[in-house]
Please model this.
Amino acid sequence: MNRNTEQQYIYPIFEKMMTREDKEALLKQRSVMVWFTGLSGSGKSTIAIALERELHQRGLLCRILDGDNIRSGINNNLGFSAEDRVENIRRIAEVSKLFVDTGIITIAAFISPNNELRKMAASIIGEENFLEIYVSTPIEECEKRDVKGLYAKARRGEIKNFTGISAPFEAPESPDLSLDTSKLSVEESVKLLLDLILPKVSLGM
Model:
């Protein structure tokens, strides 16, 4: 039995699986990855939730991935070491790729503190599918909003490797959109996002 024949018997399912285009046609939308990055308290999750609601009201299927539903489940064995941060983003990107390949508009809200991590995520998901949204709210404003007191604890040394205080944050080199929520309301931020996203997810039907 030659190699091609062996592969035919070993991997027959991939020739039968429905394609991403099939799923997008069913859902009447194109999928895309909307990746929010920014400091803790910058407004990532708030904007992501508001964006999901607006897209849903337009009949578009979305899925939000954030710390609450990832750290408590698939990544509950990871800490906050440099190695675990990389693995955290890698797993998120792999899960996101599955959603995107299923035709679902996928929204991720994670600090993802450096360009190398975000480039890894874009590489896994597909750069052509990846929209990088930088929530560029200044750290002073983020600290003001910190109801959990995490920044204060980090400044006292009670939390190690806290991004923005004891661990660095690298601003994106060329994000698809920057949103400073100390200047923009949630509604204004979502309007800018819709202007960016809607043309990309429309099937033009």
In short: The longest strand covers residues 130-135. The domain at 20-199 is CATH 3.40.50.300 (Rossmann fold).
